Amino acid sequence: MLEAVAGWVPGEPVPNGALPAEWGVDDAWIRTRTGIAGRHRAAPGMSTGDIAYEAARLLVADPVRAGAAEAGSVRAGSVRAGPVGAGPVRTADAVVLATATPDHLIPGTAPALAARLGLGTVPAFDIGAVCSGFVYGLAVCHGLVVSGLYERVLLVGADVYSTWLDPGDRSSGVVFGDGAGAALIGAGRAGDPGELIAFDLGSDGTGYDLITVAGGGARSRSMAEPPAKGDEFFRMRGRAVYQHAVERMTGSCRSLLRTVGWDAAEVDHFVPHQANARILRAVAERVGIGARRCVTHLDRVGNTGAASIPLALADADARGRFRTGDRMLLTAFGGGLTWGTVALRWPATATGATATGAMTTPATATPATVTGAMTTPVTATPATDTLTMKTPATTTSGAARPDSSWATALDGRNGS
């Protein structure tokens, strides 16, 4: 079952107006085509492992250091999954990291993340399903728990796409942002809040060349000739990807709804991978889910890859949108090609965010009080989006710090 979710994004927002002038795009152009008003970029020297750690430590902590800490204390810039004064946060006995931007080709990033969190010699490994990674990860973690191998698994979705983007490629540059989201998956009973009810996963390797980083792997290294110029950068064939994304996510959602016996009208919240506002609307409409039930977060953070769904979940829950037991449908599409959908019941979470530092993204906790602070975002209204966006009221205290985490959501009354 899903126990808790948290999210973290680096630095200050990069609004559309701050993008390179040579791209020849303005704010209205970007909002009209993508629904995105801003995104975040990791600072020089900050890697996927770094931002994955920031998200993960909102849910788990080094059990030795946490046990020695003063009861009830919360460090500035952190959110603890549990009531203030309840002692150390819960730990995890396995770690799964979903990412398309690992720190190195070898080794995987997850073992270093587990060690940095103080989790010792627990099993840890990466999943490479690109933007479908978090949904694939939920299925993997669910299997690890249901099988009885582990009691609680930490799942992190994190990507630093800014390190893979071609500085001259505006089509990708306006869309992608950096971020990380984390979740705890533990044991539970059928029908309980947090239940991961069913999954629908798929892939189509014939479309492997639609989303690629051609250089750097064994394929390019095996060639006699040197890599072509630009092969080190992320490439995406936008028109074909759009068509596949809409078709695959729509089909996966319909299939899973049949499996669990839900009508589309019975879904309380629809949380698609935050790729592009047009894709989100197209899938929601075809599945039969109205805009008011669609959770949207990409206007503030862009496409954050494997982090997009947990970021959207953590943000919306911190805004008090979800209720215990709500029926949730999560769906994603990514390179490979891969796609996946999960049906779940929302866990019991507390959404009262209180300020302890200015670099904290609100996290969810079960059953718990969420302690953290949010910075105030810029209000954005994409020209082609029917959803109205609103700047939420936030509470902050303490000195602001650089590389602050940040999150917000569309107003729940207007369809976030």
* SSE sequence, one letter per element: EEHEHHEHEHEHEEEHEHEHHHEE
Largest sheet: 5 strands, mixed
Structural class, judged by helices and strands? alpha/beta
The strand line-up of the biggest sheet is: 1-7-6-4-5
**Number of contiguous helices:** 11
Helix content range of the residues, please?
10-25%
Per DSSP E runs of 2 or more residues, the count of β-strands stands at 13
Question: Which stretches are poorly predicted, pLDDT < 50 over at least 5 residues?
Answer: 64-88, 350-416
* Distance between the amino and carboxyl termini: 24 Å
Mean pLDDT, to the nearest integer, reads 79
**Approximate strand percentage:** 15-25%
Question: What's the Cα radius of gyration?
Answer: 20 Å
What general form does the structure show?
globular
Summary?
Helices cover 24% and strands 17% of the residues. It has helices at residues 27-34, 48-56, 63-68, 110-116, 133-146, 170-173, 218-221, 238-260, 277-287, 298-301, 308-318; strands spanning 2-8, 14-15, 38-39, 95-98, 124-127, 152-160, 178-186, 196-203, 211-213, 234-236, 269-272, 327-334, 338-345.
SSE blueprint and pairings:
Blueprint: E1 2-8, E2 14-15, H1 27-34, E3 38-39, H2 48-56, H3 63-68, E4 95-98, H4 110-116, E5 124-127, H5 133-146, E6 152-160, H6 170-173, E7 178-186, E8 196-203, E9 211-213, H7 218-221, E10 234-236, H8 238-260, E11 269-272, H9 277-287, H10 298-301, H11 308-318, E12 327-334, E13 338-345
Helix pairs in contact: 2-4, 8-9
Explained architecture:
With 416 residues, this protein is of the alpha/beta class. The protein contains eleven helices and 13 strands. It has helices at 27-34, 48-56, 63-68, 110-116, 133-146, 170-173, 218-221, 238-260, 277-287, 298-301, 308-318; strands at residues 2-8, 14-15, 38-39, 95-98, 124-127, 152-160, 178-186, 196-203, 211-213, 234-236, 269-272, 327-334, 338-345. The longest helix has 23 residues, at 238-260.
